[in-house]
Every structure is written in C-alpha cells, then in structure tokens.
Specification:
Layout: H1 2-19, E1 24-25, H2 28-33, E2 38-47, H3 52-65, E3 70-77, E4 81-89
Parallel strand pairs: 1-3
Antiparallel strand pairs: 2-4, 3-4
C-alpha cells in the first residue's frame, strides 16, 4: 500500500511540474513591453468540436517544442476546422 501511495504522489507531482513549464499565452503588447525575442511561428488545426482551450493548449505545446516561453495568437479562424497561428517568444 505504501508503494502504491508513493507512486500516486510521484505521478501527481510529475504532472504538475510538467504543466508548470508550458508556454504562456500573452498579448502582443506584453511581448513588446518586455522586449521578448521572437523565435518563430507555430500553426495548429483542430476540429470545430474541440474547445478554444484545446487550441490554446496545442499552441502552447508547439511553442514549448520550439523552445519558447510565451506565445501570441496572431490568427484564428475556419469553418469545419479551426486554424490558428501564434508567434513564439523567449
């Protein structure tokens, strides 16, 4: 039982620590005011049935993979699918 409890605690801690490193959505004004360095652009396409939060989370993950700490959504739209683009900053 102690091993099971330790495993659950370890899994929970790793989940929260991984989400702490996710890129954060900011505004264009925040990027300019803080002189963040733009390091690229990421794009994502999702089905309309998914929530806007899913789009933001997908962009955050892609920004992480690019080495970014922040992202600014610069375009979003579509009919049957939502296409979104974001500038990535560090």
């Amino acid at each position: 039982m102690k091993v099971f409890n330790a495993l659950i605690i370890t899994l929970a801690a790793s989940f929260f620590s991984l989400s702490a490193f996710a890129a954060t959505e900011i505004t264009q004004e925040q990027a300019k005011a803080n002189n963040y360095e733009k390091i690229g652009v990421v794009d994502v396409t999702k089905k309309v049935t998914q929530s806007p939060t899913d789009i933001s989370e997908a962009l955050s993950k892609l920004a992480d993979e690019k080495g970014g700490k922040y992202f600014v959504i610069i375009a979003e739209g579509g009919n049957n699918e939502v296409h979104a683009s974001a500038d990535v900053y560090k």
